[in-house]
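Entry for the shared binder. Reason: the reviewer on the internal report wants the predicted structure included alongside the sequence.
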Amino acid sequence: MYWGMGAYGRKKKLTAPELVVVDVNSRYGNTSSNWTRNSLTMQCWLKHLQDIFNYREIDYIWFARNSSQFDIDDIKEVFGNTRRVVIGRSGCYAFNQMILQNFFSVKKLSIAHSSFPNSKVPGRVLMLNFEDLDIGYRWVERTILSLDELLLINSKKIYIDNLQMSAKELNKFIKLWQRGSNPRMEWLAIKHTIVKEDDKEAIIKGIKHEIFPSDYIRKFRAVEYHRIPREIKGGIDIVRVDGMKATIRFKYRHSFPAIEMFVWFDHCVVDS
């Protein structure tokens, strides 16, 4: 790497890597190779690997610790577009904003509250039409979203980790969904919530529903699972004002509660 004048001042440039590690995972096993050829630039290495594996897409770009030291324009020039961007602890709020500006066309976005000033995800980000929006940094960071902010989300698949929202607020969210909020949502998953198993009744209080046993199995395919459908065992069915059905499931694994909501759009229904 070297330092040069890049976007917004002096930034590191992407140059010829000293070492390239290639991990190949397949049904036959995993292999790892270390390649050294300093004459190739980062962009040449990328093209070389794309030619070898006959795969042109960049599945995702992960901006991790200290990535803010690099020139965002240089990163965009080398890697081009990607379907998914993961914004981790880059070390700079302004850099995180530049990531969103340069990769505004991504279909999938993973973010944490700590990626933004005052640990608050901007409403303009929540309102974008993502296929997939993940919020949270595993269970090590609390995710604080108000009910109004949750209602702003316009993504198809919504995954929220460690959400600090009460059973009463979740009950309000479901009722508002029944009235027409979050119309694009296909799948909602809330993991490591503060609600407890006893809160199940509070979450569905006042909501007309039908309970199905665990041996009643349906297949669901959301935008994230376009190849392999998921088996939905049992659950609590509710209906939106326009007749759209959804299934709510409560899961408790390793003492961490989770709530899932599946919306049965026609393209999500998989015939058995």
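Summary line for the report: The chain has one domain: 2-198.
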